[in-house]
Amino acid sequence: MAETSTTGTRAIEALSLVPKAEGKQSMKDFKSDQEVRWCPGCGDYAILAAVQGFMPELGLAKENIVFVSGIGCSSRFPYYMNTYGMHSIHGRAPAIATGLASSRRDLSVWVVTGDGDALSIGGNHLIHALRRNVNLKILLFNNRIYGLTKGQYSPTSEVGKITKSTPMGSLDAPFNPVSLAIGAEASFVARTVDSDRKHLTEVLRQASAHQGTALIEIYQNCNIFNDGAFDALKDRQQAEEAVIRLEHGKPIRFGSDLAKGVVRDPLTGDLKVVAVTPENEDQVLVHDAHAESPTTAFALSRLADPDTLHRTPIGVLRSVDRPVYDAQMADQLDQAIEQGGKGDLAALLAGGDTWTVVG
């Protein structure tokens, strides 16, 4: 879609603000000299390899790429990327990244966080980054457990989950991160799986091209404290019946021989899964990731059974154009300069009503 507004033009130009790399890059260029310290078999290794392998595609100077993380196993990520990075405060990575992306538009800013870091102590920061539509990419590793602190239940753990902190089973209803993001009016929302490198890379590719906040939920196996949590989506035979692969412009069908499809219930308006027949084939929804209304994307995010993970959609659920926060802020600053405005902090602090407090 062509953009004609100043803000839209700035959003498109943002891609060219980050300096290009000199010469061809490879995966090796993005590997740091730090020893990778995750448990053997952790899904984080697969995600790290996918990101390191994808980064050369951007063709950006690695000195102008920044990874910001919070606290958790996933938050060690910046140490292992040969870029700039910051291992920040628990839950505050989106807030720090917002300031960085808004003030330094010559940087490509990525956030790495986990389900506990992003959705518990960091929940408030996450939803505000999403609604503002700051130009950053958020990778949310979801293993449905607290791994770094040794196995307590997390905001995405299923009801009844028995852990060290819930020996009789969790009573909390879990967050659905994709539903939460769509509800916060995120302009790009996707889900993928750590072990499916091809799919993960394609989602990263689409997210990186998006202007604004892109959130990718990555199902990630914690083989120490929650091993096998996503087996239904990874086992080839089970996945055929459990995973709904979303592709823009294509009918939403899955299962053996694509025998199942997603349709809208004419009575309730809800989405439901049906066996596809010649009589109802034309009722199967065609995925529209660019629909202005988030209604259908949200309904798709609710299809998955939180316990069995059957009917789990993966892929890009929503990708829409929306004004980008840092571009709009830059417009305001330019406008203030054009109007001859000069900042005066002392005048600002002393302006209007002032009070003198005496002892």
Automatic annotation (TrEMBL):
Organism of derivation: Streptomyces tuirus
Domain (Thiamine pyrophosphate enzyme TPP-binding) ranges: 71-218
Keyword hit for Phosphoprotein: no
GO MF entries: magnesium ion binding; oxidoreductase activity, acting on the aldehyde or oxo group of donors, iron-sulfur protein as acceptor; thiamine pyrophosphate binding
Alphabetical list of CDD domains matching this protein: TPP_OGFOR (cd03375)
Keywords: Oxidoreductase
InterPro entries: 2-oxoacid:Fd_oxidoreductase, THDP-binding, TPP_enzyme_TPP-bd
GO biological process, any: cellular respiration
Protein name as annotated: 2-oxoacid:ferredoxin oxidoreductase subunit beta
Pfam assignment, any one: TPP_enzyme_C
